[in-house]
């Protein structure tokens, strides 16, 4: 803008006209929000003058980053942004859909079922006879320590507590 306004005022020769030049919008520099909670990151962005309506959340599965924690951001940290116009995208962990098959070798049928269910898995029992008294878990498939999707079934193989493993192990032959 200028003073006097254009279009009507005649300024004498060597008269003064004041021009107002905009510096543009005030930019703010983004910090690194990875590794902090989503709510904390949003609070920090709002404190910079970025309205919540310009903060976008994208949920992603992650085995390495805790649920509701920022994994990454766009634009990257160190970038100067216009808080009135730029959108900030926060990629947030929704946790992992995978779980580890627990080691239940030697467990009773009830303890095995509880452990499998507590891990978020379903149980498929093999070789369990009667009430299961005197029977223990010999092995599982997938084996203990394997990563599987939450809700998957784990096959549990039982044997008598005093049986040797060779009497219930599966054998394979090549033809």
UniProtKB/TrEMBL annotation:
It comes from the Bacteria. Residues 59-69 have a biased composition (Basic and acidic residues). Residues 1-23, 24-94, 95-160 form the PASTA domain. Residues 59-86, 123-150 are annotated as: Disordered. Gene3D superfamilies: 3.30.10.20. This is PASTA domain-containing protein.
């Amino acid at each position: 803008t200028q003073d006097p306004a254009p279009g009507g005022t005649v300024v004498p020769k060597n008269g003064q006209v004041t021009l107002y030049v905009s510096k543009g919008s005030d930019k703010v520099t983004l910090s690194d929000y990875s590794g902090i909670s989503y709510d904390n990151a949003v609070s920090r962005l709002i404190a910079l003058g970025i309205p919540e309506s310009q903060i976008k959340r994208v949920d992603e599965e992650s085995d390495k980053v805790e649920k509701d924690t920022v994994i990454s951001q766009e634009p990257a940290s160190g970038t100067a942004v216009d808080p009135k116009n730029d959108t900030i995208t926060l990629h947030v962990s929704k946790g992992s859909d995978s779980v580890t098959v627990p080691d239940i070798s030697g467990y009773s049928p009830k303890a095995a079922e509880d452990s499998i269910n507590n891990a978020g898995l379903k149980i498929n029992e093999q070789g369990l006879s009667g009430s299961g008294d005197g029977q223990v878990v010999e092995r599982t498939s997938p084996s203990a320590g394997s990563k599987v999707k939450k809700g998957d079934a784990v096959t549990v193989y039982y044997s008598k507590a005093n049986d040797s493993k060779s009497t219930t192990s599966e054998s394979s032959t090549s033809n």
